[in-house]
Design goal:
By secondary structure, this protein is an all-alpha fold. It contains ten helices and no strands. It starts with 13 loop residues before the first helix and ends with a helix. The relative contact order is 0.14. InterPro entries: GLTP_sf.
């Protein structure tokens, strides 16, 4: 049975999404967490439109995660948009010994954020490559990036959601080459800016000594997944 046709509503706007991507790395080479929140809000609209109840479970957590950075910055008195950067938050937490535990959590959250952009890059760089496995492509990309860092109670609903429409051809037809959703060069722009953000964050993670948390994922990682369904099962079992 072929998957049902996805619903497309007007709330999601790919052009706005690209704008937030473009502005995430600021003119003074900082990572804007206010733009990060706005970008993920656009993604949340898309996920809820496409995946219904399962999507809402995922977006509830996404919104909590993006709010985390802004709430923390506000506690330090950083309320202006140009002050709300990952670099400022890392500096503030590293300077205060009482914030050592919070600083560690912040580093892990930034690693997860980096894995998200790596996930996007892996998908958009690979969906047209014939040598990469196609049946579970979207889910496999998740497994070798975000799936390496997210807890099981997030990973399981995301995996369930992705399994509904995991194939390259499905995503290519219904999303990547669908002008009604991603008009013009929006997909190419998202890839370009995702790579820029990814490289910025890799340098940032290395600077703060968290290179061991970097999981960017590669085409080789995808090809190493001999049995994707078995890999999901093993991954789930090891996390319980």
């Amino acid at each position: 049975m072929s998957p049902k046709q996805p619903k497309h509503k007007t709330k999601f706007n790919a052009v706005d999404l690209v704008s937030h991507y473009k502005n995430m790395v600021t003119s003074d080479e900082k990572l804007s967490m206010s733009e990060n929140a706005a970008m993920f809000e656009e993604y949340c609209r898309f996920i809820e439109d496409e995946y219904g109840l399962v999507g809402k479970i995922v977006t509830h957590r996404v919104r909590k995660d993006t709010a985390f950075y802004l709430e923390a910055l506000e506690r330090y008195g950083k309320t202006k948009e140009d002050e709300q950067t990952a670099e400022n938050l890392l500096t503030l937490t590293s300077e205060n010994k009482n914030d050592a535990k919070f600083h560690t959590e912040l580093c892990h959250r930034l690693a997860v954020l980096l894995s998200f952009f790596s996930y996007v890059v892996l998908i958009l760089d690979g969906y047209e490559k014939p040598d990469l496995p196609g049946r579970n492509f979207i889910a496999d990309c998740y497994e070798v990036t975000l799936g390496k860092l997210e807890p099981w109670y997030i990973r399981k609903p995301v995996q369930a959601m992705l399994r509904l429409y995991a194939g390259k051809e499905y995503w290519k037809e219904h999303y990547f080459e669908n002008e009604a959703i991603f008009p013009g060069n929006t997909i190419a722009d998202i890839l370009t800016y995702s790579k820029k953000i990814q490289q910025h964050m890799i340098k940032l993670m290395e600077k703060i000594g968290c290179h061991h948390l970097i999981h960017t994922g590669t085409s080789a990682d995808l090809n190493d997944l001999d049995n994707p369904s078995s890999s999901f099962s093993n991954s789930d079992n090891s996390s319980n």
